[in-house]
From TrEMBL:
This is Ig-like domain-containing protein. Residues 43-63 are annotated as: Disordered. The active site is at H339, C358. Pathway: Cell wall biogenesis; peptidoglycan biosynthesis. It comes from Streptomyces lateritius.
C-alpha cells in the first residue's frame, strides 16, 4: 500500500489551498501599500501617530501671531501724524515696510518687545502708502499682512522762505533763516522737520523769533570752508490746526573765507579783518549824535550796487530821499546799512559822525569808481560777512533785527 499512487482528488485540494495562500499574501501586500500612501490615521500611541495627551501641534498649523495695521486697508484722508501704527499680538514683529508710490520708505521705530512699530516722523500729504508687516509666533511661524492707505489733501498750506540761496558762498556769520507764510503754533513739529548739518560737523541749533521765523546757527561763527546742508521735510507737517506744510527739498551752501570788520564809532574807523589779519583800515562816518548807530554784531543780508534810500520808510519823515546810494549793504531790517557816500566832503570820513544811523564810506556818484573805499569794501564783501559796531552811544541791536542772532548768548539761543 505504501507504493499506491495519490488519487486525483487529493492533488487538486492541495492546488486550491496553495492558490488561496498566494491570494492572501497579495492582498496583504496591497493593504500595506495603500496604508503607506493613503496616510490613514495610525492607532493612538503608535510610532507614526501623535498622542493627544502630549499636547503637541502639527508642523503645518497656522501661526498664532496676529498683525494689526492702523489705518485700515483702503483708508482715505488719513492724518499725516499719529494715525499709522503696526502691532502684533501673540507674536513679535520681524518686518515692517512702509513706502510711498515712488518706493521711498518711511523711517520707523520698532518697540523693544517687538509688539509695535511707529514712524519716527510725519507722513507726506496727499500720498498713497503701502504697508507690509510680518510677525512670528513662539513657534517661529510667520503671519503677514499688507494694506494700502492715502493721506489727506490739505486745504490750507504753508511754506518757508529761506536764506541763504542754494549753491551760494556766504560769510561766516550767515545763519539759516526761514520765514513761514503762516504763523506756526506747533513749532516742535516744524523745527523737527528741518535738518541742518555741516561738514566738518558742528552743533547747530534753531531758535524761534515769534511764530513765523526760525533761525539756525552754531555757537560761534562758522569755520571758513564749511559745507552746510539744509533738508526741508515740511510736506505734511501740521504747523497749525488744519494748515500743513507742502515743502520737501534740500539746499546747500558753502562758507567762504573769514571776514569780520569792526567799526569803532568813536574812532570813526573800520578795520577789515580777513582770516585773522587786518587787511585794511577805512575812515568812516557813523550815526550823528541824534541818530546814532546800533552797537553789536551785524550780518550783511543784502547787497545793492546802487539803491534808493528814503527816510520816510524808516521813520525819518522827509529828512532825506537819495535815489542813487552807491555800494549799499544791509545790516538790519530797520534800515541800517554800510554804504557809499558821495554827498559828504572827503574830510568828513574819519573825523565826524553825520549819518542817520548807517556806516558811511567815501564813494563816487554812480558807483563807477572802483578805487574808492566804498567800492573796495563792497567788492570784497559777501552776504553773511560780519560787521561789528562798537563805542556808539546807542543800544545793542536786537537779535531779530536782521540776521543778527549772534547778539544772543548761546544759553539763551538754545532755550
Amino acid at each position: 500500500m505504501n507504493g499506491q499512487p495519490i488519487s486525483g482528488a487529493s492533488a487538486g485540494s492541495r492546488r486550491k489551498r496553495g492558490g488561496a495562500r498566494l491570494r492572501t499574501l497579495a492582498a496583504g501586500a496591497m493593504l500595506l501599500v495603500l496604508t503607506a500612501c493613503g496616510g490613514g490615521d495610525p492607532a493612538p500611541g503608535s510610532a507614526g501617530g501623535q498622542n493627544p495627551s502630549q499636547g503637541g501641534q502639527q508642523e503645518n498649523a497656522a501661526s498664532q501671531a496676529v498683525v494689526t495695521i492702523a489705518p485700515k486697508d483702503g483708508a482715505d484722508s488719513v492724518a499725516t501724524s499719529g494715525a499709522l501704527k503696526v502691532t502684533a499680538e501673540q507674536g513679535k514683529l520681524t518686518t515692517v515696510t512702509v513706502a510711498d508710490s515712488k518706493g521711498t520708505e518711511v523711517e520707523g521705530k520698532l518697540a523693544a518687545d517687538g509688539a509695535s512699530w511707529q514712524p519716527v516722523g510725519h507722513l507726506a500729504a496727499g500720498t498713497q502708502y503701502k504697508v507690509h508687516a510680518v510677525a512670528k509666533d513662539a513657534e517661529g511661524r510667520e503671519s503677514a499682512k499688507d494694506t494700502t492707505f492715502t493721506t489727506l489733501v490739505p486745504k490750507n498750506t504753508f511754506i518757508g522762505h529761506y536764506t541763504p540761496e542754494d549753491g551760494s558762498t556766504v560769510g561766516v556769520g550767515m545763519p539759516v533763516s526761514v520765514n513761514f507764510t503762516r504763523g506756526i503754533t506747533n513749532p516742535e513739529a516744524v523745527e523737527k522737520a528741518i535738518k541742518v548739518t555741516a561738514e566738518p560737523a558742528v552743533r547747530i541749533e534753531g531758535h524761534w523769533f515769534g511764530n513765523d521765523r526760525l533761525d539756525f546757527r552754531p555757537e560761534k561763527y562758522w569755520a571758513a570752508g564749511t559745507k552746510v546742508t539744509v533738508a526741508f521735510n515740511l510736506d505734511g507737517v501740521e504747523g497749525r490746526p488744519g494748515v500743513y506744510g507742502k515743502q520737501k527739498k534740500t539746499i546747500s551752501f558753502t562758507i567762504g573765507r573769514r571776514q569780520v570788520s569792526t567799526v569803532d564809532a568813536s574812532a570813526k574807523t573800520m578795520k577789515v579783518e580777513r582770516d585773522g589779519k587786518i587787511i585794511k583800515t577805512i575812515p568812516i562816518t557813523a550815526g550823528a549824535p541824534s541818530t546814532t548807530t546800533y552797537n553789536g554784531q551785524m550780518v550783511i543780508s543784502e547787497k545793492y550796487k546802487v539803491t534808493r534810500m528814503n527816510g520816510a520808510t524808516v521813520g525819518f519823515g522827509g529828512e532825506y530821499d537819495i535815489k542813487d546810494v552807491p555800494h549799499a549793504m544791509r545790516l538790519s531790517t530797520s534800515g541800517t546799512f554800510v554804504h557809499g557816500n558821495y554827498w559828504a566832503s572827503a574830510g568828513t570820513f574819519g573825523s565826524a559822525n553825520v549819518s542817520h544811523g548807517c556806516v558811511g564810506l567815501r564813494d563816487a556818484r554812480g558807483a563807477g569808481d572802483g578805487s574808492t573805499p566804498a567800492a573796495w569794501f563792497y567788492d570784497r564783501s559777501l552776504i553773511g560777512d560780519v560787521v561789528i559796531v562798537k563805542n556808539s552811544k546807542d543800544k545793542e541791536i536786537k537779535p531779530d533785527n536782521g540776521l543778527n542772532g549772534w547778539n544772543m548768548d548761546w544759553s539763551e539761543w538754545i532755550k
